[in-house]
Predict the 3D structure of the following.
Amino acid sequence: MIRFLTGTAINAFGLWLLTLIVPAFSMKPLGTGFWPTVGSFFLVAAIFGLVQAFVAPVIKVLAFPLYLITFGLISFVINGALLILVAWLSGVISNRLFAIDGFTSAGLTTPALGWAVIGALILSIVTTLLRAVFRFAR
């Protein structure tokens, strides 16, 4: 349980940093003030963690031939698609809780997938660095 909470906190920080760095990502908190904002980031980070735990392994196994053909480069697109899935799931909870420009209820545009791939890349770099720092700190 502690590991999941630590991972969720790291993902929440990564999502917060992502919304600051990339203007195509936005977060509309569930309330006003500091704690509702933090709670909103933790909620989206928990959704992200559950998607990474349950959906990602299935997709990666099914896409194994594509990994071989593209020498692993398809992982960027798959991670971007998983980030779009997180945006959709968070949109089910609250309208535009976590949003990507170009991804609406009407559908997905090509720039949205590009932003999602860039966002997934930034998020993976930030979370990898933070996980390394927390492992080193133990």
